[in-house]
Specification:
The radius of gyration is 15 Å and the shape is globular. The protein has a single domain, classed as Rossmann fold (3-Layer(aba) Sandwich), CATH 3.40.50. The chain is about 25% helix and about 35% strand. It has a 9-stranded mixed sheet, sandwiched between helices. By secondary structure, the chain is of the alpha/beta class.
Length: about 180
């Protein structure tokens, strides 16, 4: 079962719909967590949402509690939440990407995707990871083809993955393939 933690984002229902193609999905608001569902789940998904990771201390506690015990996937704010919990610094970008389509490419650090594989993705974010980012077992595995901004992470040892972009967006080509690869990892 996949348990999605909703950060009150309009995209969360799209995330639920996308993940329900692969397994049973339960979804609850970040401040109304169902502990029974959380414990029964095999996969935790941190949804997109407004604000910054520091605004969601309960999600940070859940991440720290289940890191290495369940597969964790973060999308947009959820991606930033994972990085924030790993001592990454999340900062404002010079350019805001809301409803913006970008080309991204995989790095040679990805174990799930071929090196230099290109994807067209939908972006909806004004924050980004400040680099350098160094955390044990974490690799930046996708980057914006133009700005080189981090777009995805993999921690295959502890089964933690994240996308700065929205795989569920209509602007993302092959979004279901991306999710399928992560879920089967």
């Amino acid at each position: 079962m996949i348990y999605i933690i909703d950060h009150k984002d309009s995209f969360t229902h799209n995330v639920v719909h996308q993940f329900s193609r692969f397994d049973k999905v339960e979804c609850d608001n970040f401040n109304d967590i169902n502990e029974t569902k959380l414990k029964k789940s095999n996969v935790l998904v941190f949804s997109p949402g407004p604000g910054a990771p520091k605004d969601y201390p309960l999600t940070s506690r859940i991440y720290k509690k289940y890191k290495g015990k369940k597969k964790i996937i973060g999308i947009c704010l959820g991606f930033q939440q994972i990085l924030y919990c790993e001592k990454g610094k999340i900062i404002e970008q010079n350019k805001i990407y809301h409803g913006f389509q970008s080309k991204i490419k995989t790095t040679n650090k990805s174990l799930l995707f071929k090196k230099d594989q290109k994807f067209t993705v939908g972006r909806y974010h004004s924050l980004k990871l400040k680099e350098p980012f160094i955390a044990k077992n974490f690799e930046i595995t996708m980057r914006c083809a133009i700005s080189n901004v981090a777009m995805a992470i993999e921690n295959n040892n502890e089964k933690i993955y994240g996308f700065q972009f929205h795989p569920e967006s209509f602007l993302t080509e092959n979004g279901n393939l991306l999710i399928k690869k992560i879920l089967s990892a």
